[in-house]
Amino acid sequence: MKSNLKWIQLAIVFVLIIALPAFFPSGYYYRVGALIFVNALSVVGLVILIGYAGQISLGHAGFAGIGAYACALGPDYVGLHPAFSVILGAVVSAGMAALIGKPILRLKGYYLAVATLGFGILVSMVLTNERALTGGPDGTAVAKLGLRSWLKDAGIKLSSGEFWYLVCGAVLLIGVWIALNLFHSATGRAMRALHGSEVAARTVGIDVAQVKLQAFVISAVYASVAGSLLALQNKFITPDVAGFMHSIEMVTMAVLGGVNSVLGATLGAAILTLLPQVLTIFAEYEQLVMGLVMILVMIFLPKGLLPSIAARLRGRGE
Amino acid sequence: MDALMQFLLSGMTVGAVYALVALGFTIIYNASDVVNFAQGEFVMLGGMTTVFAHAAGLPLPLAAVIAIALTALVGVALNKLAIEPARGAPVVSLIIITIGASIFIRGAAQLVFDKQLHRFPSFSGDEPIRLLGAAILPQSLWVVGGAFAVFFGLWAFFTKTLTGKAVLATANNRLAAQLVGINTGWVMTLSFSLSAAIGALAGVLVTPITLVAYDVGVGLALKGFAAAMLGGMGNPKGALVGGILLGLLEAMTAGYLSSQYKDAVAFIVILAVLFAMPQGLFGAKHTERV
Amino acid sequence: MKPVITTAMTTLVALGVISLAAPASAEIRLGASVSATGPAAFLGDPEAKTIEMLVEQVNEAGGINGEKIELFLYDDGGDPNKARTFATRLVEDDEVVAIIGGSTTGTTMSIISVAEDEEIPFISLAGAIQIIDPVRDYVFKTPHTDRMACAKIFTDMAARELTKIGMISGTDGFGASMQAQCHDIAAEHGIEVIADETYGPQDADMTPQLTKISKTEGVQAILNPGFGQGPAIVTRNKAQLGINLPLYQSHGVASDGFIKLAGAEASEGVRLPGTALLIADILPDGDPQKDVVTSYKSAFEGKYEQKVSTFGGYANDAFLLMTSAMAKAGSDAEAIRNALEDTSGLVGTTGTYSFSANDHLGLDLSAFRMLEIRDGGWALAE
After folding, report:
1. Residue closest to A132 by CA, chosen among C109, B260, C166, C187
2. Which of A173, A262, B167, C78 is an S-S bond match for C35, by CB 3.0 to 4.6 Å?
3. At what angle do helices A208-234 and A28-46 cross, to 10 degrees?
4. Crossing angle, helix A2-19 and helix A160-184, to 10 degrees?
5. Cβ–Cβ below 8 Å for C81 and A31
6. pLDDT at B58
7. Which H or E run includes C45?
8. Could you tell me which residue ranges the Leucine-binding protein domain spans (chain C) (predicted)?
């Protein structure tokens, strides 16, 4: 039954990724789709941290920054292929998360929020100030992945938009699959236990500090890979990727869609990525509408869009 | 020596700005356990409304009073329309609500006012006061004085007045407060209007120094929040000390180490303090109830 | 005749390319992505307003060769990621034939990769030199490079025998890029940077940095690359500290707003490289730019009740360049690009543009004018 639910969710994501392009009127929609998948990937990471383990972070854009700049700098400085630079970024992010997670995760609530926020700001500051290495606030170019021209030689012709749509979609699918497996694993259960009550979790023998750290490290890797994908498809990256507003955006997407639900978080990412594109018709009111949507969803659907709607449907069914 | 003096004065000025923002966080947090990320927008509203009222021909003091009163109303509206309907929501939802409110207010300000930078004249002229080889502007004294005045006001409010104690009681246990006859709804209205008014006052005081535009709120809220957490959220003493400490840290780093990494040093110190004292410098200890 | 003659009109009429008789049937699709909100809003806001105003003017006058311009204008908020998405949208979905925009270097670089891939001519409104060096086929730009601003300032300093200087730069893209360029070419002009400080774009007080600079042995002048509130605060702080050194600002604050924010007293004697736009009123009648700057200034200030800035001027020039190329080439992207590259002697608010296959900026230092603030207004320093 539980595992059925997992496969259903996975199937929904898979079918959406495959079927949506049939309705795309132009190549621009592939770009928006790819952005949604990238955002959804980092948001699924936050579901593990916030939704499963109940820990907040206002600094995850810092990890996205590490992932993005690993792809920009890896090929130039270490001679790594861009694809392996993604892995390098993930390893560095995981290491960094493990290092700072230990002391930071002892903090609770708003204190944890300010500590993670501080971490994110430190990363973006280094990226901004170390001009010689990172290109400074004006950003730096990112090498081509080269996979698309390789595919072309193999006889598969894809536009840049189509290619990145498929790559980001595939990575998101893997990310969702891992997150769903984790949910039902022993570690996932431990995370959810400490979300309920840390004291209770400790009394049943859960190593609270260790489990929190696992959630933090895993979510950091998600954000890092998402940052890498963004850098590779944009072929240009600036420190904005690690900025405070990007961290806030990630958390908002997660909470809006439903922070306990992988599918909900994906929906949240889709809505907040699409909204600015839709609102260009009344650009002047964009911020007004954006703020209003955030407030209204939190008031009327406090568990997030998807779980609240699901609960309502279930309620009517009974 | 006179360089050190200048760094100290600069740190005090900037620190007092942070402290004023941090103090604004205090009341709302005490009354409702909500950290209001729209606090920076109150500061912006105070500054922008004063600028436009002054430009429309009102004398500066009147413009300032109107700005503070209007912002207090915005604070009450924020509580009634966004915070109260979401009572009992988890911390992260409340963070999103107040961030949503800040984006909303910013969007409205950009429509009602404009996107340009503004300033109005300093209260007591721009002739710097020389002090041991260093120079400070009279407006900086207004800001520092304002921060201390608000601090003493809040301290007296929370410890000496019945209303202040009612606010603390409401935060501590809402139901118990209601049972002893405290009108908790009214306490919340009061808290939000006071916090907003303090924010607007900060905006009025700092605009001649920092200038104001529709989007200055985010940066101020960020630093004010950091300062409040450094001192310990909810404690006026913590907000004042945290703010001034943050300002001094930045000025000293800029003066002696590297101006490029002054914000970095400030955040490293905050992280270090929180590792050693997870509730900030003056924060109260909480234990989880099972 | 009313003074509100549009800049676009005067130039187009001068070029003899407008034919009002042609029926207004077809449309030319023009794309724009600027930072009308966000940290670069005071670049993007006047740029957006300028582009909207000019499109309106051209269409009211019958369009280009009878074809109206359909404008697709997006606000990227200064976010390079958004800028890339909007560039993709402009090309793939709105099917524009040309793009103007990229208020900051970051957003410009994002748009460039789309424009180059899709072979759409793009005129950038950002400063950094890497936009047009190396030359890219489809990318042009209207503002002077920050390197040229440094050169103009250093030339003026050398003439005043100020050779040892202190720099205080903003850490935003504009400030950091210009800081690096100035360092690069200081030695060529015999200038030595002996103190180098920075400040954050939102900082409230720069007296520690200025104190450090003024205490550096032998410093003769201060240079402040930056935009936004930073330079105004630096100027005020310098007066507060009573530092008696000549202060140079960058073209990033070339607007009347700067004098108002910094105060006439504190900004007295401040020099900066500006464009003719700022001194439209005091330009001699014979000046080649006189007509262009006065008509743009009066049109903009009449419509928006807001002072013109150099940045709106960049957008004005980009629009002029693009529409005059369209007038020659019609609505084919490749033809527009070629016509752009052939542009010669087009007078804009920033300077006189002449592009070539290996110069996609087409301005030289002569277009920059060294201005000095005197009695709360602009004056020519030379």
Report:
1. B260
2. C78
3. 170
4. 170
5. no
6. 94
7. helix C41-60
8. 27-362
CB-CB contact of B132 with B68 (8 Å): no
- Quick: pLDDT tens for B237-269: 999 999 999 999 999 998 888 888 888 888 888
Please count the other Cβ atoms lying within 10 Å of the Cβ belonging to residue A43. Answer: 36
Report the DSSP beta bridge partners of residue B242. none
pLDDT digits (tens, 9 = 90+) for C109-167: 999 989 998 999 999 999 888 899 889 999 999 999 989 999 999 999 999 999 999 99
CB contact under 8 A, B216 and C37: no
pLDDT in tens, B76-115: 999 999 988 887 777 778 888 999 999 999 999 989 998 8
> What contacts B181, CB < 8 A, 6 or more positions away?
none
In this structure, which long-range contacts are made by residues C145-148, counting pairs with CB atoms below 8 Å and at least 24 apart in sequence?
Answer: C145/C181, C145/C361, C146/C174, C146/C177, C146/C178, C146/C181, C146/C182, C146/C225, C146/C250, C147/C181, C147/C184, C147/C185, C148/C363, C148/C365, C148/C368
The two tokens of residue B231 are 């001192």
For residue C213, the distance in angstroms to the closest alpha carbon of chain B comes to: 10
Domain C7-145+287-366, CATH: 3.40.50.2300
Q: Spelled out in words, what is the top-level CATH class assigned to the domain C146-280+368-380? A: alpha beta
Q: Residue A205: how many CB atoms within 10 A of its CB? A: 7
Token pair for C263: 């105060």
Identify the residue among B4, B5, B6 best suited for mutation to test binding to C, counting C beta carbons within 10 A and taking the highest: B6
Q: Give contacts of B 99-158 with A, CB under 8 A.
A: 99-108, 110-111
| Gap between the terminal Cα atoms of chain B | 56
Q: Is A32 exposed, middle or buried (0-12, 13-18, 19+ CB in 10 A)?
A: buried
Q: How confident is the model at residue B39 (pLDDT cuts 50, 70, 90)?
A: very high
Q: Which DSSP string do the residues of B113-142 spell out, in sequence order?
A: S-SS-B----TT-S-PEEETTEEE-HHHHH
Asked if A127 and A106 touch (Cβ cutoff 8 Å), the reply is no
pLDDT per residue over A172-229, tens digit each? 999 999 999 998 898 889 998 888 788 888 888 888 889 999 999 999 999 999 999 9
B54-81 pLDDT per residue, tens: 999 999 999 999 999 999 999 999 999 9
Give the 3-state secondary structure of residue A87: helix
The full length of chain C comes to 382
Amino acid C262: pLDDT? 92
Q: Are C242 and B135 in contact (CB under 8 A)?
A: yes
Residues of A in contact with B104 (CB under 8 A): 287-288, 290-292, 295
User: Chains that contact B by 3+ CB pairs under 8 Å?
Assistant: A, C
Please check whether residue B280 is in contact with residue B225, taking contact to mean a CB–CB distance below 8 angstroms. no
Total CB pairs under 8 A between chain A and B: 132
Q: Minimal CA–CA distance to A231: which of A130, A94, A78, A127?
A: A127
Q: How many residues does chain B have?
A: 290
Contact C266, C292 (CB under 8 A): no
pLDDT tier at B290, thresholds 50, 70, 90: very low
Exposed, middle or buried by CB within 10 Å (0-12, 13-18, 19+), for C267?
buried
Those residues whose C-beta lies under 8 Å from the C-beta of residue B90, and which sit 6 or more positions away, are none
| Domains within chain A, CATH numbers bracketed | 29-317 (1.10.3470)
The dihedral formed by the CA atoms of A228, A232, A236 and A238, expressed in degrees to the nearest 10: -10
**Dihedral sign (CA B162, B226, A53, A46):** positive
What integer pLDDT is reported at residue A65 of this predicted model? Answer: 96
Residue C193, strand partner residues:
C165
Q: Among B278-287, C47-56, C78-87, which stretch is predicted with the lowest mean pLDDT?
A: B278-287
